[in-house]
Design brief:
The chain is built from 13 helices and nine strands. The protein is of the alpha/beta class and about 375 residues long. The strands form three sheets. It has a five-stranded mixed beta sheet with strand order 4-3-1-2-9. Strands 5-6 form a two-stranded antiparallel ribbon. A two-stranded antiparallel ribbon has the order 7-8. Helix 2 packs across helix 12, helix 6 crosses helix 7 and helix 12 crosses helix 13. The longest helix is centred in the first third of the chain and has 18 residues. The two termini are about 40 Å apart. Bound molecules: manganese (II) ion. Manganese (II) ion (MN) binds next to loops.
Length: about 375
């Protein structure tokens, strides 16, 4: 059966990681699935005390693969990138030095680099499993204590919109495990974006998915709507936040919003991480933030956020406020990397570590 063959392949791959004593180089795509997947593996290696580096790349080229060949990493792990170029990659790099953690359909199913690929295990790489999910199963095989990384896998699943028609395959398994562990919660909410970041008034005015005549895009109408429901506009610190509402007020907002919405669907599953704080509680927001980090050449911050770095989290909330409006959904491609500065030799600093901006880097 597919699950068994996949988990057997995962076990072999985890054994390769575990057997490594030298540095492991994690190369990941710059979207949120790549960043979350890389962070899951980096966390697993960090906990094992193994040396590693993470580099986030916008794409792989022959030149960049040749550059990888010059690195003296013992194992190069490609996350969410590479499956569509297996023939080229294996012509440049020895297969025994590589591990592919990528759910995209491979250009060569028979390649030894495609052993983990969902297509080789009767799985649908666009619905059953994403790269963060694959990374999660590797991490869990390395140590079951890595179960606490299930929220990061969910961030990757949402980033790739694999939850859209309901979870299935190994994605569903991860979400169920996350719920059992008390790390993931699911409830039905009005289809609004930014529950943890914006005020209730701001949510109602600025919503993209939920449309209510006389409320959406209408500050005075939105105020009147909330007042009608008995929801105070001012909370403890400025405008009322969603988490300040009582259960009754939340219920009223949900029912009334659903009733008056003119665009379907007005409600959607909302996934949250109860052990996280602030905007990192909101799975969709988290995923959007990581995508923005990648596209703004701040992937190093994205990795650090996933690994719990508080200074990276503070920095991200500063820059995120300025771009949130242009990046409302995780799959939005409106933010493009700045190609010109890709070749820049300047560097940014995070927690005392210096990162070249040309290749976002996070190292142990
Ligand atoms: Mn992906």
């Amino acid at each position: 059966m597919s699950r068994e063959t996949f988990l057997a392949a995962i076990k072999d791959a985890a054994d390769r990681i575990d057997a490594c004593e030298g540095e492991q180089l994690i190369i990941a795509d710059l979207d949120a699935d790549g960043i979350a997947g890389a962070a899951i593996l980096a966390s697993a290696l960090e906990r094992l005390g193994k040396p590693y580096q993470v580099q986030i790349v916008p794409h792989l080229t022959n030149r960049s693969v040749k550059r990888l060949a010059e690195k003296d990493a013992e194992l190069i792990i490609l996350v969410d990138i590479g499956a569509t170029h297996l023939k080229e990659i294996s012509s440049i790099l020895p297969e025994e030095k590589l591990l592919l953690v990528d759910h995209h359909y491979p250009d060569d199913l028979e390649s030894p680099l495609a052993t983990l690929n969902p297509a080789n295990h009767e799985m649908d790489g666009s619905k059953d499993i994403c790269s963060a999910t694959m990374a999660y199963f590797l991490a869990e095989d390395l140590d079951t204590a890595n179960e606490d990384l299930t929220p990061l896998a969910l961030v990757g699943i949402i980033a790739d919109a694999q939850e859209k028609d309901g979870f299935q395959g190994l994605n569903e398994e991860i979400v169920m495990l996350g719920k059992d562990l008390g790390l993931v919660e699911e409830e039905e909410r009005l289809k609004l974006f930014g529950y943890e970041r914006r005020s209730v008034l701001g949510l109602m005015i600025g919503s993209h998915d939920l449309k209510i005549e006389g409320v959406t895009g209408d500050p005075e109408g939105a105020k009147a709507f909330l007042q009608e429901l008995g929801i105070p506009l001012e909370g403890r610190r400025g405008q009322t936040r969603y988490w300040e509402l009582s259960d009754e007020q939340k219920e009223l907002l949900f029912e009334e919003g659903k009733k008056r919405a003119t665009k379907e669907p007005a409600v959607a599953p909302y996934y949250s991480f109860p052990k996280e704080r602030g905007m990192f509680k909101d799975a969709r927001q988290y995923s959007t933030l990581l995508n923005a980090c990648g596209r703004l050449e701040k992937a190093n911050i994205g990795i650090a956020i996933c690994m719990g770095d508080e200074s990276a989290r503070r920095e991200s909330s500063r820059f995120f406020a300025t771009i949130a409006s242009s990046c409302a959904m995780p799959t939005s491609g409106s933010l493009k990397p700045n190609e010109r500065s890709m070749s820049s030799s300047s560097s940014s600093t995070l927690a005392g570590i210096s990162f070249p901006t040309s290749w976002a880097l996070f190292a142990r």
